[in-house]
């Protein structure tokens, strides 16, 4: 006997249409925040000629990290400029920075909430599992539905895909603070805000930074995939190469992505470990 | 004056504490309740009071509920039932703001594993209590340095906790608790993580601080030696219940039940130890040769308030107190008139177990005098040496009372 197919597809479609019709104001609002942010990063990165921008970035990296990382940044980014992929790289970096920023702004408070309230964690854990196990490009479809094509749905999809580690590790970092330190903070009469900002967050800092690092790396990978919905950037280069079977061009685009990935990774890592040095 | 008045304080860990409470009231034991319901009795109807300026020691085996009890006093753990009155105000009924205020101003806590904030410097750690009260940077820095001075660590203000040894870290913990100038110190096995020598130092230091600052100290330990050394009174806990409260003498001489007896059993070394093994040599005043001023000078030098008086052949005659010596010096009385003759006098081979009740009888007012068969002075046994011996760490001829 053949069971009738559950009309899941229709339900979802109806739901999505309902959302688009009733929440268009909300989606416009989100678009109005994300679009200018991406543009802002692009504007900053294109203020000066590429070579000068690269030099400035390398200097900033030197301040935040080690000399070797700064040198790698300089050489790597110059190579990208040389390959004439700078423009696309700027697009990609702007998308990544925007997506990461949004993820952190939403993710850290959610993580804090989850650490303080058990019920928040109980709700969030399955949601986060779901968000992370869905294949990345599945997010592209609803994103396109609500935000049409372009950079904004790309950022939205990246945020959904990349935010879980920040939430998880913020939660974990705060929960890992030793119990007796919490007791000490309480015993001296801290308010819960004082406890959070003077004890829990500082002690969870390196764990939270590890979460942010993962978020940034995930949003880079998602931003590249998001070129499928017109987000632009280096993903476009690779996508074109695939459709035209141009191996060389595909390799160049891939190389640029790898360089950006390594720079982002090393810089955020050294920010996370940049604790007090023991003399 | 009463600092703490604790009544019927009970803590039951588990899903339905109210039901556990009922079982506790029916007089069921911790183990039965655990087996029947899976709930743990942390503290079982504890009632006691602590005087202002008292050192109150809570002692008991692991799991007997000491940490739970001390945390109920500042409500780090919510009681299931009972009241804790601090200066007459019931902590258990305070709202969160009142509770915070009480914790900020009245109670400092010292933790077993120090619990220093690793991301803060020593000075910032000590400042913490003041910082969260919004005391201006400069003022709290000054107070923190004073407090560090009390524990002899003012030179380490800018170090970080992980750069210090365990003993130093615990001094910082003590300084942090003292910085708010609280009336009360809650110390949960504060010295247990330290090695024995440093531990003794810390005990002495705490006692020095106590005699100059007169805090009320609630001190948790599972170590009888420590309890006897520092406690004015000792409460013994078992399975969440307080089984006996008393002075060190009470606990040693009249154990309330088998448990207490077992706890102090090791102490019965006293049957083997003799007066001569715990006495210290005593310089004596020779009657007819030395005058009252010499006596006072000796006492000052030795930091004691009594001196033994002997005849020219070292026969023991009596105890001269500082007051007595002053009277002689000022009113022209003779030393014999003020000499105290009823001090405890024993021979060298008297067992400590016989000596103790005698000393306890006159409230340890004077050191016990040890003579040989001919009644010649051999030495004295001071209160501290007595307790050290009772605690089983044997002979300590340097002990002073
Ligand atoms: N948070 C908790 N949840 C459940 N049971 C607890 C909790 N804290 C303590 N207990 C139980 O309460 C009892 C008393 O524990 P407590 O820590 O007060 O003992 P303690 O006398 O301080 O022991 P120790 O000398 O080992 O520190 C123990 O049986 C313990 O298992
Ligand atoms: Mg304990």
TrEMBL record, chain A:
GO terms for molecular function: amine transmembrane transporter activity; carnitine transmembrane transporter activity. Its main location: membrane. SUPFAM superfamilies: MetI-like. It is found in: Cell membrane; Membrane. The chain crosses the membrane at residues 40-62, 69-86, 92-115, 136-163, 216-239. Residues 89-268 form the ABC transmembrane type-1 domain. PROSITE patterns: ABC_TM1 (PS50928). GO terms for biological process: choline transport; glycine betaine transport. InterPro entries: MetI-like, MetI-like_sf. GO terms for cellular component: ATP-binding cassette (ABC) transporter complex. It comes from the Bacteria. The keyword Signal does not apply. It is a multi-pass membrane protein. Belongs to the binding-protein-dependent transport system permease family. This is Glycine betaine/proline transport system permease protein.
From TrEMBL, chain B:
GO terms for molecular function: ABC-type quaternary ammonium compound transporting activity; ATP binding; ATP hydrolysis activity. One of its GO terms (biological process) is response to osmotic stress. Its EC number is 7.6.2.9. It is found in: Cell inner membrane. Residues 28-264 form the ABC transporter domain. CDD domains: ABC_Pro_Gly_Betaine. Signal peptide: none annotated. Residues 339-399 form the CBS domain. It is a peripheral membrane protein. Keywords: Amino-acid transport, ATP-binding, CBS domain, Cell inner membrane, Cell membrane, Membrane, Nucleotide-binding, Transport. Gene3D superfamilies: CBS-domain, P-loop containing nucleotide triphosphate hydrolases. It catalyses: a quaternary ammonium(out) + ATP + H2O = a quaternary ammonium(in) + ADP + phosphate + H(+). Belongs to the ABC transporter superfamily. This is Quaternary amine transport ATP-binding protein. It comes from Melghirimyces algeriensis.
């Amino acid at each position: 006997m053949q069971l009738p197919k559950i009309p899941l597809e229709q339900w979802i479609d109806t739901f999505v249409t309902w959302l688009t019709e009733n929440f268009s104001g909300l989606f416009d609002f989100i678009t109005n925040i994300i679009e200018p942010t991406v543009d802002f990063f692009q504007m900053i990165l294109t203020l000066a000629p590429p070579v000068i921008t690269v030099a400035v970035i390398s200097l900033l990296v030197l301040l935040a990290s080690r000399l070797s990382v700064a040198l790698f940044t300089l050489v790597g980014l110059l190579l990208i400029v040389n390959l004439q992929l700078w423009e696309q790289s700027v697009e990609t970096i702007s998308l990544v920075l925007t997506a990461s920023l949004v993820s952190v702004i939403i993710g850290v408070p959610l993580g804090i909430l989850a650490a303080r309230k058990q019920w928040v964690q109980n709700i969030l854990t399955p949601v986060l599992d779901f968000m992370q196990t869905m294949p990345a490009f599945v997010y592209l479809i609803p994103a396109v539905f609500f935000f049409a094509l372009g950079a904004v749905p790309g950022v939205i999809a990246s945020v959904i895909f990349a935010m879980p580690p920040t939430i998880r590790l913020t939660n974990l970092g705060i929960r890992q603070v030793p119990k007796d330190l919490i007791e000490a903070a309480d015993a001296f009469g801290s308010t819960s805000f004082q406890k959070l900002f003077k004890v829990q967050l500082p002690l969870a800092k390196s764990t939270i930074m590890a979460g942010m690092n993962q978020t940034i790396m995930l949003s880079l990978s998602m931003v590249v995939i998001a070129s499928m919905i017109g987000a632009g950037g280096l993903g476009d280069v690779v996508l074109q190469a695939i459709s035209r079977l141009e191996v060389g061009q595909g390799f160049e685009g891939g190389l640029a992505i790898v360089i950006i990935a390594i720079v982002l990774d090393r810089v955020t890592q050294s920010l996370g470990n940049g604790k007090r040095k023991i003399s | 004056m009463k600092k703490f008045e604790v009544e019927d304080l009970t803590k039951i860990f588990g899903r339905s504490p109210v039901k556990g409470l009922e079982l506790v009231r029916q007089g069921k034991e911790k183990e039965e309740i655990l087996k029947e319901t899976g709930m743990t009795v942390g503290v079982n109807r504890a009632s006691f009071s602590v005087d202002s300026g008292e050192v109150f020691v809570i002692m008991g085996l692991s799991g007997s509920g000491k940490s739970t009890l001390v945390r109920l006093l500042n409500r780090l753990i919510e009681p299931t039932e009972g009241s804790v009155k601090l200066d007459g105000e019931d902590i258990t009924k305070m709202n969160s703001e009142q509770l915070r205020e009480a914790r900020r101003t009245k109670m400092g806590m010292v933790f077993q594993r120090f619990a220093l904030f690793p991301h803060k410097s020593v000075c910032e750690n000590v400042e913490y209590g003041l910082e969260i009260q919004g005391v201006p940077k400069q003022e709290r820095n000054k107070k923190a340095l004073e407090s560090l001075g009390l524990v002899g660590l003012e030179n380490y203000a800018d170090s970080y906790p992980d750069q210090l040894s365990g003993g130093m870290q615990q001094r910082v913990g003590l300084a942090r608790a003292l910085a708010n100038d609280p009336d009360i110190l809650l110390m949960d096995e504060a010295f247990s993580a330290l090695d024995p020598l440093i531990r003794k130092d810390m005990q002495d230091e705490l006692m020095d601080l106590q005699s100059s600052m007169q805090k009320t100290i609630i001190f948790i330990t599972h170590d009888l030696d420590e309890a006897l050394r520092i406690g004015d009174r000792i409460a013994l806990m078992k399975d969440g219940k307080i089984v006996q409260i008393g002075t060190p003498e009470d606990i040693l001489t009249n154990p309330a039940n088998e448990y207490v007896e077992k706890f102090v059993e090791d102490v019965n070394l006293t049957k083997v130890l003799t007066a001569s093994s715990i006495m210290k040599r005593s310089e004596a005043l020779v009657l007819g040769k030395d005058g009252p001023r010499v006596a006072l000078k000796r006492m000052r030098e030795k930091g004691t308030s009594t001196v033994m008086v002997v005849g020219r052949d070292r026969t023991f005659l009596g105890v001269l107190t500082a007051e007595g010596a002053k009277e002689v010096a000022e009113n022209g009385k003779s030393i014999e008139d003020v000499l105290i003759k009823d001090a405890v006098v024993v021979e060298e081979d008297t067992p400590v177990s016989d000596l103790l009740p005698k000393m306890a009888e006159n409230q340890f007012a004077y050191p016990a005098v040890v003579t040989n068969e001919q009644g010649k002075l051999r030495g004295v046994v001071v209160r501290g040496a007595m307790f050290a011996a009772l605690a089983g760490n044997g002979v300590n001829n340097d002990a002073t009372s």
